[in-house]
Amino acid sequence: MQIIQYITAQSSLSEKSITNTLELLHEDCTVPFIARYRKEKTGNLDEVEIGLIVKLKEQFEALEKRKKAILKALKEQEVLTKELENKILNTSDLTVLEDIYLPYKKKRKTKAETARNQGLEPLAKILMSQRNDDVSFVASKYINNEITSEEKALEGARFIIAEWISERTDVRNLIRRELEHFSTINTKVKKAKKEDDSALKFKDYFDWSENLSKIPSHRLLAILRAEKEGFIRVKITIDDERVLEKIDRKVIKNNNESGAEVQLAIDDAYKRLLLPSLTTEAMNIAKEKADDSAIQVFTKNLEQLLLGAPLGEKRILALDPGYRTGCKVVCLNEQGKLLYNTTIFPHPPQQKTTEAAYTIEHLIEKYTIQAISIGNGTASRETERFIKNIKATKTLEVFVVNEAGASIYSASKIARDEFPDHDVTVRGAVSIGRRLADPLAELVKIEAKSIGVGQYQHDVDQTKLKKSLDTVVEHCVNKVGVNINTASASLLSYVSGIGPKLADNIVSYRNENGIFKNRSEIKKVARLGGKAFEQSAGFLRIKNGTNPLDDSSVHPESYALVESIAKDLQTKTQNLIGNTATLKQIHLSKYVTDKFGLPTLKDIIKELEKPGLDPRDTAKAFSFDDSIQTINDISTGLILPGIVNNITNFGCFVDIGIKESGLIHISNLSDTYVSDVNEHVSLQQQVIVKVLEVDLQRKRIQLQLVKK
After folding, report:
1. 655 near 642, Cβ under 8 Å?
2. CATH no. for residue 291?
3. Within-domain flag for 87
4. Tell me, what's the pLDDT at 201?
5. Is residue 545 part of a domain?
6. For the segment 595-654, what is each residue's pLDDT rounded down to a tens digit?
7. Are residue 223 and residue 153 in the same domain, yes or no?
C-alpha cells in the first residue's frame, strides 16, 4: 500500500508495526489504548511513535486529496496527459505537487495573459529559442492597433517569458535553496512608533538582522508579533546578484539580442513573480517551524503542570486573595465538594484583621480543615502572611497555588453548571482549592492555552495548538487513570474512547443509580457500546468495588488470565495484589499466547504489585522570602527561593513571590552547555536562585540557578 510506503519513508518504524498500528486505528482504537494494551501487535510502540504514525497518515491523506482535486481540474481543462498523470500520482511531496500544477493553475488576469491575448506568444517562443539576432525586425511583424511599437511587442513577449521562467521547478527550487540557507530576516522600527511606550517591549527588534534558518523560534514569533502590532517592518533578503547569475546560467543560451531580451525577462520574473512568492513561502515555512517548536514547549509544560503533585483527598480551606473586595474563602470536603463560602477583609482598606482571623479559626475547626490553599494573584503574599500568623493554622500546611486560568474557569459554562447559585468569585476560590487536591482533575476544565505555561501560544497556528494540547491532556488523564465514581464530566471526556457525550451519560447514570460497583456495570451507561467499553475500561478506576482488579490498569480482557495465574498458584486473585513475593514466582513464559505476549504480561505483574499507583509526586508546602514584596525590594546578588512557573526554549521563568517573574536564561542554568531546558528544571519545581540584574523600567529580573 502507498500509505505504508509513505510512512516508512518518513520514519524509522518497521513496516509491520506501521501496518498493524494503521489497522488498529482503522478499527477506531485510540492512541492511549493501542500504546497500553496492544503492545504485541505494534511491536511495543509508545504513544509518541503511534502519534507520529497518526500524523503521517493525516499528511498522506491530505496529499492524496489534493492530488484528486488537481487531476479533476486538469481533466476539466482537457490538458491531462498520461505522463502528467503519472508525475502527479508518483509525487510524495506537497510542494513538488503544487509546482507541477502551477503552469495549469487558473490565474487572475496577468500581464502574460494579456500579452497572449494580443497574439504575442509566438514572438515569446522565438525570443526564448535565442537564435534570432534581430529582435526589432521580428517584433515589427506584431505591430497592430493594440501594439503600437516594436518595444511594446517585445515587452509583452518578455511578460510571457517571465511567467514561463517563474513556473520552472528547477528555477523555483534554486531560489528555495538560497532562501533556506542564506536568507536574512531584517527588521526596522516604524518612525511613528519609535517613541511609543507600548513599543518598549519590542525595543530589541527596532533594528535587527539575522539568518532566517538560524533564528530561534521565540525570537521569530516575537518579531512577527511586533510586525502584526504595527511597530516594525520585516523583510527577507538574499544576495540577488548571485541568485540571478545562477538563473542566467540555467536559462541563457546565447549572447545575442534574443538572449538579452530573455535576460530582461529573467530580471522581471525574479523581482515581480519569484522573489515575492518564494520569500512568503520561506517565511511561512520558518513560521511553521517556530510554531512547532513553541507548541512543543507548551505541550511539555502542560504535561508537567497536569501531572503536578496532588495533595490528595483532604479537607481544604481555599482563599482567592484581594484587597478592596476582600478574600473569598471556601471550605471543601475530601471530594472537592463545596461545604461553605464567605468573604473576609484582612487587608486595607477595610483592615478587619481580627474579625477575619476569627472566621478562619472557626472554619478550620468546624469543617476539620487539613490544608490551606491560597491563590498566587493580587494580595497573595499578604494573605499568606496573615494566614500563617493565625494560631489555628500552625499545624496545617499552607500552599500557594498557581491560579492562572481560574478566572476563565469561573466564568465558563462548566463552572455555571457546577455552581449555578454562586458567583464567579466563589467558583474561582473553589478552583484554587481543587487545584491543590488534584491539579489534573481541575485543570482539564480550562482551555489549555489559557493556563499560561507556554511561549507566544496566541501567535501560533491555533488549530495545530489545540490538537497538540488535547493530545497531551488525553495522555495525562489516561496515564493517571480516572475514578469513575468521583470524576467530573470534563475529566471523563478525556478518557480513551469516552468523549463529551458519553462523559455526560456516565455522570447522569451515576446521579440516577449511585456509584459504579464494578467495571461490568459501565456497560449499562446509555450509548456506551462494546467498542467504547474496550477502549475506556482499563483507564477507569473503581475503588472498593466488588472486583479488586477494577482499581487497577489491568484490562477486563485480561481478568481471566489473572484468575488462571491465581488458580495455578492455588490462591485467590485478591491475594496476588501487592504480594511481591508471590508475583516473583510466576513464570510468565508459561502464559504467553497469541493474544498475550511478554510485554502485556509484564505490565499486568507490575500493576498487581502496586495497583492504581498514582505516578505523580505528593504536594509539598513552600515559602517565599518574607522580605521581598515588590520588584523594588530586589537587588543584585540576592539569594531567593522560587518556583519554576514557565519553561521556554531560551530559559525558564521563576516565581519569587512578587508580580514579576524572574528569568533564568538558558546560559545561567548550568556551568556547562544546556541544549534542553527541561533536562535541568521542571514546571512547579522549587529552586534557589541568585539575582543577576534588575531592570526597573522594563520590569525584568535576570536570575541564575543556584540550587534545585
Report:
1. yes
2. 1.10.3500.10
3. yes
4. 82
5. no
6. 899 999 999 999 999 988 889 998 999 989 989 989 999 999 999 999 999 999 899 999
7. yes
- Which 3 state secondary structure label does DSSP give 665? strand
Number of domains in the chain: 5
Angle between helix 598-609 and 559-568 (nearest 10)? 70
Half-sphere exposure at residue 415, Cβ-oriented, CA atoms within 13 angstroms? 26
Q: Does 540 score more than 90 pLDDT?
A: yes
What pLDDT, on the 0 to 100 scale, is given for residue 95?
Answer: 95
CA 654 centroid distance within chain: 21
Distance of alpha carbon 312 from alpha carbon 439, whole angstroms = 10
pLDDT of residue 343: 98
| 175 plus 146 within the same structural domain | yes
* pTM for the model: 0.89
- What are the cell numbers at 421? 447559585
The answer, yes or no, to whether residue 455 has pLDDT greater than 80, is no
Distance CA 194, CA 269 (A): 36
Residue 681 lies in a domain: yes
Specify the DSSP element, H or E, that contains 41. helix 39-42
**Same domain, yes or no: 441 and 320:** yes
Helix (H, G, I), strand (E, B) or coil at 541: strand
Beta-bridge partners for 345: none
Domain end point (choices 442, 461, 492): 492
| Beta sheet of 184-189, edge-to-edge order | 207-211, 184-189, 232-237
Q: What angle do CA 372, 304, 434 make, to 5 degrees?
A: 30
Residues 562 and 702 grouped into a single domain: no
In terms of domains, do 17 and 78 share one?
A: yes
Q: How far apart are CA 273 and CA 269, in angstroms?
A: 5
HSE at residue 181, side-chain half, CA atoms within 13 A, is 6
The reply to whether 520 falls in a domain is no
Distance of CA 13 to the CA centre of its chain: 24
pLDDT exceeds 80 at position 197? no
pLDDT in tens, 84-96: 999 999 999 999 9
Rounded CA-CA distance 295/457 in Å is 7
What integer pLDDT is reported at residue 576 of this predicted model? Answer: 94
* Alpha carbon distance 501, 408 (integer Å): 23
User: What is the distance between the alpha carbons of residues 3 and 23, in angstroms, rounded to a whole number?
Assistant: 12
Mean pLDDT of 232-260: 97
Q: Which of 611, 688, 678 is nearest to 305 (CA)?
A: 678
Q: Among residues of the chain, what percentage have pLDDT more than 70?
A: 100
Do both 603 and 643 map to the same domain?
no
- What amino acid occupies position 495? V
- CATH number for 694: 2.40.50.140
Name the residue with cell 541564575: 704
CATH of residue 87's domain is 1.10.10.650
Q: Which residue has the cell 516594436?
A: 150
Least confident range of 308-312, 414-418, 456-460, 616-620: 456-460
Q: Which amino acid is located at 338 in the chain?
A: L
Instruction: List, for residues 329-387, the tens digit of each pLDDT value.
Output: 999 999 999 999 999 999 999 999 999 999 999 999 999 999 999 999 899 999 999 99
CA atoms of 297 and 303, how far apart (whole Å): 10
Residue finishing a domain among 492, 515, 540: 492
Average pLDDT value over all residues in the chain: 95
* pLDDT tens, residue by residue, 468-513: 999 999 999 999 999 999 999 999 999 999 999 999 999 999 999 9
What does the angle CA 499 – CA 49 – CA 41 come to, to the nearest 5 degrees?
A: 85
Q: What sign does the dihedral 225-228-232-234 (CA atoms) show? A: positive
**Residues 371 and 279 grouped into a single domain:** no
Q: What domain range includes position 640?
A: 631-707
Same domain for 77 and 197?
no
